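Annex B. Sample input.
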Amino acid sequence: MDKVALVTAATSDLGKAIVLELAELVKGVAVHYQANREKALKLVQELKDRGLSAVALAADLTKAGEAARLVKEVERLLGRLDILVNNYGPLLVKPWTDCTPAEVETLWRANVLSAWETMQAALPGMRRRQWGRIVNLGYSRVDELRAFPTIAPYAMAKTSLLILTRTAARTEAASGITVNMVSPGIVEGAQRPADTKVPAGRFARPEDVARAVKFFVTEEAAYITGANLVVAGGWKL
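Annex B, continued. Sample output.
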């Protein structure tokens, strides 16, 4: 593919796995990082060693305007943006009655508004080229409208992100742009809930989730849009 991808939170274990999977398909990758510049530069060098164009870009996606600026930097440095993976989305585990308005606002901005801004900034170029792939990261219970007493701000935000995903999928389909969600279950190394019995017998590996993201980017998935693919090994079914 003669395409350029941006992966947010690319220095996380999941972000890196997504970058390396997409590296098999694209000519260029923008590696977003929030704070870990050294890890981002190391990943960029690994991509360059594979013959790809790659840049490391810092942005605080909890701040208004930073997500849009990030996209513009990708387009300036790599010439275009065809594939957007919104992987950034911190989790807060805390009784909802103890959460402060500032914490709720931060979770909302990090999980929803950052994706809103990157998508709004990336879509004009995708529309001009009549091709685009957007993949947003959810979580395995994102479509369950039920009580989540210990992760309420996160669950609220991710469910809103699913609505945004499907809304964009509906409006952009005629422009050759697909918008989908990949929703992981319990990923190795991540914070674990009390109920950790997974029918598949193990937690998800970052590569399991990354391959689902990669699928949505391929031409084989060109007719799939607005989907939410759960990668959870049967957890909570």
